[in-house]
Amino acid sequence: MAKRILTIVLGALFSIAAWAGGGQGGPALKQADNDLWDQASLQRGAVAFANYCQACHSIQYMRYNRIARDLGWADEQVIEKMAHGLNKPTDVVLARGNLQAIAQVLGTVPPDLSLMARLKGSDYIYSFLLGYFEKDPEKGVWDNHYLPGTAMPNVLEDQYRFATAAEREAVARDLTNFMEYVGEPIKLTRYELGWKVLLFLFLFFIIAWLLKKEYWRDVK
Ligand code: HEC
To answer: What is the rounded CA–CA span in Å between residue 98 and residue 193?
Structure first.
């Protein structure tokens, strides 16, 4: 009896573990190892997003000038690098293509990517971008290990064909980094503020300590 109960409990635990571990049982995710505090990577990611993704995807909760401010660009720079002069700094980042027309070709409306990294996780974005394989090389048909049958074409095809694995991973990492930043832009501010608060507390501690010494000199 005890053995049967143990089996049931263990069985339940394992199925919970399997469910918590991603559920659909797809291949293990690759580690993105992206670094939100690497500003150069975020800048490269933003430019790569504009070049590779923005034809189909918006990040509608972001404005160009917010990206500029967070990534260390002037307003003119972000417009030049991400929009080739086509937008105002105060514009939100919309897809360049006509989404209805794209949906007719691909069968699905490309989703807004503002919150995608928070929804799916950075490791997933990274793995998804690197997860394409050529299903039918003769017809040039690609599929994806992480989202089988996906409607999204392999937009990084040039990276698969002409770049080394390390170069391709670097592009995917920069894109993932930018996606994670877009998902929660306040993370950068919070981190910067954290240092300022710590520095303030440290300086205040020294002042308080000196003051205490000064006061107690007469008492002692
Ligand atoms: C040609 C249009 C097109 C381009 C360009 C494009 N995508 Fe997509 N993307 C799609 C479509 C369509 C979907 C919906 C896929 C589906 O549901 O199968 C999608 C879905 C996604 C998803 C969600 C995947 C999921 O698991 O639901 C992510 C993440 C994504 N795209 C990232 C990117 C990134 C990053 C780029 C640039 C490197 C990019 N896309 C470029 C069309 C595009």
So the answer is: 40
